[in-house]
Write a structure and sequence with these properties.
The protein folds into 2 domains: 19-337, ABC transporter type 1, transmembrane domain (ABC transporter transmembrane region fold, Up-down Bundle); 351-434 and 552-604, Rossmann fold (3-Layer(aba) Sandwich). The relative contact order is 0.08. Helices cover 62% and strands 9% of the residues. It starts with 29 loop residues before the first helix and ends in an 8-residue tail after the last helix. It is an alpha/beta fold and 612 residues long. The chain has 19 helices and 10 strands. It has helices spanning 30-35, 37-70, 75-124, 127-132, 135-177, 179-186, 189-226, 228-233, 237-290, 295-337, 398-405, 428-432, 449-453, 462-471, 475-479, 498-511, 528-542, 577-583, 585-604, and strands at residues 358-365, 375-382, 387-392, 416-418, 421-422, 435-438, 516-520, 546-550, 562-567, 570-575. A hairpin with a 2-residue loop joins strand 4 (416-418) and strand 5 (421-422). The structure holds adenosine-5'-triphosphate and magnesium ion. Magnesium ion binds at residues 398-399, 440, 520-521.
């Protein structure tokens, strides 16, 4: 069985390295190179110094050995040589620290700035994007892909620069000592670059699998923990444990496959560089014996050969680092290219919508990929300060309507008006900041109660927070908790009851001083007594505001100026409570159920607070 944990990504990030022109995405980094050019120049200057010092050490060794061979070496001269090398080692260590700080620091800055840009961009995207792409995919982008970019912009450019500069310089010094010997000695080197290239290409594929499997493991743990109550209620602990163990086995297998490549790469590259050494011993030794080159040259030559081995290996490695970086950058660019569907009117002017008057004309809406519209030509006029109730069968489009009003879904031109303005002619923010919205699915942060209530107005003082909490009939319960308003509510508010969660969400909206308030089924999880308490206490809050309350129960909407009955995305009827009881079959039926059933149960001695 293929679960969602073994499925491949289907979102916007699936564009992969095979995409032509992937290098084009490097333009994303251009601003950072421009901004930090001075830092980078300093870094590369230090890198050059390190390389030069490293290249100079063999010259000193040559001088010492030649002096020994020619017989004019003194202990003082050898001590001086040793001291020079020691000083150079200090220089190397210092400048190595400097370049690491400057260049690797640059790559970390790029990573952070790019992550900030991604996060801001993500916050601007709308519902549609998050329906198509899972949190896991977005997280992978913000972790694995960004770290691939960081590696390429840090160690990648260092290794490339080093490979070219150090490789060529060492090669030059070797040529200077003896051209023919150089050709012989470096003959096996391309093999080394080729080997690293081939193996690191394989490594890339295998490493990707390790990372993918790691995301699978993480996502599995995340979803198991966040739905732990369900796992327990369905006795699935053992089964989930087994599935996790199987995923762990795959993870180990993938890692062993990576280790196998390293197991080949290091010994074989060691073998190749020793092959070069053998050639130098045979041919260089002969040249030294014949006196064509000095003993010092021979030793220096070997040192340069060592200095060349790393750049040759780096060449293969660099290609892989850049390839990975570019692949990841391409995926990040794909994300940055996603535009919010609702973003079109973002250039539109911001206006203050203070009256709270709403008009919908032939409002239509269908979710992407659906042939039948969910809302089908809906007409609705809501005067400023009106209390409108909305009822209707489940799936009739109530939440969809609320989301359209709250500007969370796109609307066609000339369909929806606030204070006489077409919503598409004013900025989205203008509309959203006129509305306090309590969505049907309560969303809470794993933070304190005070933070959750004040989310829309972070600067609100405790007095205001408490006032909103009182109006939502939750204050008493909050102060009864061990840490009152500072109580941490756990992930998604796990420590609270369903009704408490709903009332915190209502308090959050009441705290905002907005002309329009929309509550989508916000009282469904409270008992009737609390429901009445809330209705009574929020009445004064709602006065003078346009208030839209969606409800499956009659009580919260009974006092509304007008109640709309929705059916299949249309308004089937509208009127006051007393009118609808007489006229509308659906309304009168639910009214009968909700008023008669509790009476019957009470006579039966039933204790089920009458929630039908
Ligand atoms: P309830 O009383 O159960 O809350 P509702 O009246 O609020 O129902 P909506 O949530 O507006 O109903 O849903 C109306 C229809 O739209 C349903 O058929 C639902 O399946 C569909 N729908 C809702 N959200 C989406 C979505 N994101 N993508 C596709 N279809 C959706
Ligand atoms: Mg709904």
């Amino acid at each position: 069985m293929r679960s969602r944990f073994s499925k491949k990504s289907s979102g916007v990030f699936s564009g992969d390295s095979s995409e032509s022109g992937a290098w084009g995405s490097v333009r994303l980094l251009r601003p950072y190179f421009k901004r930090y050019w001075l830092r980078l120049s300093g870094g590369f200057a230090s890198l050059v110094l390190v390389d030069l010092l490293q290249l100079y050490i063999p010259r000193i060794i040559k001088y010492a050995v030649d002096s020994l061979q020619k017989g004019h070496a003194t202990p003082r001269l050898l001590l001086d040589c040793g001291l020079y090398i020691f000083l150079m080692a200090i220089g190397i260590a210092t400048f190595r620290f400097v370049w690491r700080h400057l260049i690797l620091g640059f790559s970390r800055l790029v990573e952070t700035l790019l992550r900030n840009r991604m996060f801001s961009h993500l916050l601007g995207l709308d519902k549609e994007f998050f329906q198509k792409n899972t949190a896991g995919e977005v997280m992978a982008l913000a972790t694995n892909d960004l770290s691939a970019v960081q590696l390429a912009t840090g160690m990648g450019i260092v290794a490339l620069f080093d490979a070219v500069f150090m490789g060529l310089a060492a090669f030059g010094f070797m040529l200077y000592i003896d051209p023919v010997l150089t050709i012989i000695a470096v003959a096996p080197m391309p093999l080394l670059a080729f080997l690293t290239r081939t193996l690191s290409f394989r490594l890339h594929g295998r490493f990707k699998k390790v990372q993918e499997q790691f995301s699978v493991l993480t996502e599995f743990v995340r979803s198991s923990i966040s739905s732990i109550r369900l796992v327990k209620a369905y006795n699935q602990e053992e089964y989930q444990g087994e599935r996790f163990a199987r995923m762990g086995e795959t993870y180990v297998k993938n890692n062993v496959r990576v280790a196998a490549i390293y197991g080949v790469l290091f010994p074989v590259s060691g073998f190749i560089s020793n092959l070069s050494m053998l050639l130098v011993m045979i041919f260089g030794g002969r040249l030294t014996i014949r006196g064509t080159i000095s003993a010092g040259d021979f030793v220096a030559f070997i040192s340069y050969l060592f200095l060349m081995t790393w750049p040759m290996m780096a060449l293969g490695w660099v290609a892989d680092l850049f390839q990975r970086g570019v692949t990841s950058l391409g995926r990040i660019e794909n994300l940055m290219k996603v535009r919010p569907v609702l973003g079109d009117s973002q250039d539109a002017p911001s206006v203050h919508l203070l009256r709270g008057e709403i008009g919908a004309r032939k409002l239509r809406f269908g979710y992407p990929g659906q042939t039948e519209p969910i809302l089908d030509g809906l007409d609705l006029e809501i005067g400023a300060g009106t209390f409108l109730g909305i009822v209707g069968r489940t799936g009739s489009g109530k939440t969809t309507l609320c989301n359209l009003l709250a500007r969370l879904l796109p609307v066609g031109d000339g369909r929806l008006f606030f204070d006489g303005f077409d919503v598409n002619s004013v900025s989205i923010e203008s509309v959203r900041s006129a509305i306090a919205y309590v969505p049907q699915d309560v969303i809470l942060f794993s933070d304190t109660i005070a933070f959750n209530i004040a989310f829309g107005a972070p600067r609100a003082d405790r007095e205001k927070i408490e006032k909103a909490a009182r109006a939502a009939a939750i204050h008493e319960e909050i102060v009864g908790m061990p840490e009152g308003y500072e109580t941490k509510i756990g992930e998604k508010g796990i420590k609270l009851s369903g009704g408490q969660r709903q009332r915190i969400a209502i308090a959050r909206a009441l705290l905002l001083d907005r002309p329009i308030i929309i509550i989508d089924d916000g009282l469904s999880a409270v008992d009737m007594e609390t429901e009445h308490a809330i209705i009574r206490s929020i009445a004064s809050f709602l006065e003078g505001r346009t208030c839209i309350i969606v409800s499956h129960r009659i009580a919260p909407v009974a006092d509304a100026d007008r109640i709309v009955v929705m059916e299949n995305g249309r308004i089937a009827d509208q009127g006051t409570h007393s009118e609808l009881i007489v006229r509308n079959a659906f309304y009168s039926t639910i009214h009968r159920h909700q008023t008669l059933v509790p009476t019957l149960q009470r006579t039966d001695g039933g204790a089920n607070g009458g929630q039908s």
